[in-house]
Amino acid sequence: MKIAIISSGFLPVVDGVTITVFQRIQKLSQLGHQVLLFCPDYSALPTIYPHWKDYTGDILPGVRVINLDSTAFMGVDFERNVSQKSYQMVLEELEQFQPEIIHVDEPERLWLGFLKRPGIDFSKQYNIPCVSFFHSNLMEYLEDYLPLPSVIIAGIQFLLKFHFRWTYNGYNATLTASSSSAKKLVKVGLHNVIYGNLLGIDLEQFNPHKREDNFFAKHYHLSNVDDKVKLIFLGRLTPDKGWKFTLKALAKIQELIDLDQVSFIIAGDGELKDEIAQNFKFFTANIHFLGRLEPSQVAGLLANSDIHITTSEKETRGLTILEAFASGIPVLAPAAGGVIDSIESGKNGLLFTPKNADDFAKKLKVLVENSELREQMGQQGRETVQDCSWDEAVQNLLEIWKQQIEQK
Q1: Which fold has domain 2-200+389-407?
Q2: Pick from 79, 111, 156, 137: nearest CA to 6
Q3: Fold assignment, 208-384
Q4: What is the DSSP letter of 312?
Q5: 339, 87, 136: which is closest to 144 by C-alpha?
Q6: Where in the numbering of this chain does the Glycosyl transferase family domain appear (predicted)?
Q7: Distance from CA of residue 311 to its chain's centroid?
Q8: From residue 203, how far is each of 294, 308, 386 by CA, in Å?
């Protein structure tokens, strides 16, 4: 099959979208498919992404990556989005490639750059299907980034719903890997939603057997960490990841938990790093910033931590949650968004009431003070994702693509 993928992001950026796209094209390459991938250009950020050249051009058999002219996105220095003028290159390359199907990841974000729904015009001209994939709750991010009264934010979000519907309903199908997201999309007014098991985990890479003695001393030169309960926060240090709530909850955490027993491990980078550091220093010295990680570092980090914490209420599925489960550690998260598709509270992790610092601190206390419970939940988490392979996820995606092609 000849597949064109237009994605809002790709490696060397490390997030749920980019890892998903990379795993997908790896499997497609192994299966003998031809893939043309369009994504932003990261060459303007060589100090942040020194290995950007590894992810452009012919990176795998049958896979070619084309980087499009790009600009900064939402004022975040390490994020890029395609430019309006770059869409002409997309059309020219599609003309030469002649795909059987076009797949678009995060079309609403791409629209902000292209100022058009990517892929649809070409697909109509050549009578081929063009499908979208819903990854992120971008509309909900407004309240995190715009310092406006909530009533104004709500009004803007109401208006954006019309644009959101218009964007996604223009595609032959809107795919999602989250059942709760699928219900939300239908409720918003999308009539082309297809839910499926479209996310996977590399169970060999993410594995409890990667746990080793003195891991943090050996690999990160951190003393007095390995003997503590290690709380791992993994992701961007940006407003949409729930950091405002986390910082407000620190006082309550200190009331209930002996902070000398724990180490806060923060893996990621972003605009809030200094603010997070300043707030934490009033409560504990046991906080360690590891910065932006290479994808190969994540598995070892998770396997050698004790609890994965996310306070984001806006995840669509939460790939890091599945990675934590595969690594054999429990997850603490709010009962909101797509994380509820994966976390069975009391079995493979704990869910706390959103925006409730008391409940968050109480649930964290339970996990911190009960190593046997953590171990049991870690084992259950591993079982939760035992059947979530990338082989199966990509086969499911191929079946959807084939159905869309046949319907044309």
Answers
A1: Rossmann fold (3.40.50)
A2: 111
A3: Rossmann fold (3.40.50)
A4: -
A5: 136
A6: 225-383
A7: 14
A8: 18, 17, 8
Q: What is the pLDDT at residue 158?
A: 86
Range(s) for CATH 3.40.50.2000 in the chain? 2-200+389-407, 208-384
- The closest alpha carbon to 310, from 231, 389, 206, 209, belongs to 231
255, with CB counted inside 10 A (0-12, 13-18, 19+), is exposed
Contact 23, 122 (CB under 8 A): no
Residue 196 main-chain phi, psi, to 5 deg: -160, 170
| Alpha carbon distance 8, 113 (integer Å) | 10
For residue 47, give Cα distances in angstroms to 44, 51, 67, 71: 9, 9, 18, 16
Radius of gyration of the chain (CA): 21
Phi, psi of 46 (to 5 degrees): -65, -25
Preceding amide of 50 cis, omega within 30: no
Please give the Cα distance from 330 to 352 (Å, whole number): 13
Closest CA to 242 of 233, 229, 231: 233
Tokens of 289: 């910033």
* Sign of the C-alpha dihedral computed for residues 266, 247, 135 and 322 taken in this order: positive
d(CA 368, CA 355) in angstroms, rounded, equals: 20
Q: How far apart are CA 321 and CA 250, in angstroms?
A: 22
* Dist CA 243 CA 293 (whole Å): 19
- Does the predicted TM-score (pTM) go above 0.90? yes
Type of residue at 135: H
For the chain (408 residues), the mean pLDDT of every run of 10, in chain order, is 98 94 98 99 94 97 98 82 98 98 98 97 98 86 76 85 96 97 96 97 96 97 96 94 96 96 96 96 96 93 98 91 98 95 97 98 98 98 95 98 95
